[in-house]
Amino acid sequence: MQTELKWTTEQVMEARHSVRKYDPTATIPQGELNEILRLAASAPSSWNLQHWRFLVVTDPAIKEKLLPIAFNQQQVVDAYATIIILGDLEADKSAHLVYDEAVANGHMNESVRDTLIAQIEGAYKSNPEIARDEAIRNSSYAAMQLMLAAKAKGYDTCPMGGYNRDALIKELNIPSRYLPTLMLTVGKASVQAHPTARFGLDQLVINNSF
Fold it and tell me: Which InterPro entries match (predicted)?
């Protein structure tokens, strides 16, 4: 089993880089992969609707089918897993499940539950863009958390936006409820990522107002 690294949060953040060349013989024990996904799923989300789903591809034959869809980026084959981050376009349908459980666990009363559910349903009905915006925004939180969790356990990742979304949906039979927001490779690097320059805070931070 992979030895868990004892890194601080800061060290994990600084050590994570996008790796594009993987050792195709390296595996991730299922227990560790599940733990990475569990940690990713602890990300925050609007109304706690948990808009993400993780489509985990480890089957070599399916990864080969992903290769042309990802414009022949070999990493989708060589990495142990290629994970499709999905955003839930109908996350409002999860509201009753989330808040009924909260009431059952004594975390809120029925009046608060009903108010929150009405708020969610009203927002999704009144604003046609909110479903897509929230699906992308919240699934992105989970994707970043997944990458940090993987690095904390000694694995490498690369977020990928370069793929044919329509072909991906067709190949993996992704239901219309879910929007592919990101493709992530997870595995062991065969070639370490090169360091990248970062803007200084003087270029990034605007205090109070433009």
Answer: Nitroreductase, Nitroreductase-like
Ordered per-residue pLDDT tens for the chain, 210 residues: 455 568 899 999 999 999 999 999 999 999 999 999 999 999 999 999 999 999 999 999 999 999 999 999 999 999 999 999 999 999 999 999 999 999 999 999 999 999 999 999 999 999 989 999 999 999 999 999 999 999 999 999 999 999 999 999 999 999 999 999 999 999 999 999 988 899 999 999 999 999
- The answer to the question of residue 1 being in a domain is no
Q: Which helix (H) or strand (E) holds 157?
A: strand 156-160
Report the C-alpha gap between 73 and 186 in whole angstroms. Answer: 14
Give the strands of the sheet with 156-160, arranged side by side.
52-57, 81-88, 178-187, 156-160
CATH code for the domain in which residue 76 is found: 3.40.109.10
Q: What length does the chain have?
A: 210
Which residues constitute the domain of residue 163?
9-87+137-190
Assessment of whether the complete model's pTM goes beyond 0.85 = yes
Cα–Cα distance, 131 to 139 (Å, whole number): 12
The full DSSP string for 1-46 is: -PPPP---HHHHHHH--B---B-TT----HHHHHHHHHHHTTS--G
How many Cα atoms within 13 Å fall on the side-chain side of residue 102? 19
